[in-house]
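WARN no homologs supplied; continuing
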Amino acid sequence: MSMENKILIKLIIPEIGKEYDIFVPINRKVGNIIILFNKLFSDEINNIISINNFTELYDGDSGERLEIDTILKNTKIRNNSRLILLSNK
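OK structure emitted
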């Protein structure tokens, strides 16, 4: 996948108090991106808190919850956007 199919976002995971600058694919559904994040951070997250999976992704600027069936490029998310990843406890 070329870099033109990705954007750089700031991923905020409040439950573990961490932020990451990370490239994400713009042609994937939000639900698939959440699955990717769960795989990417599972070891680190499980060492800090015990949750099964993160299930919700929010636009960090508007607070809007991103629908899992929406393709990322069809949202307002662009380079340097902030996304907040939360579990559904």
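The helical segments are 30-48.
OK
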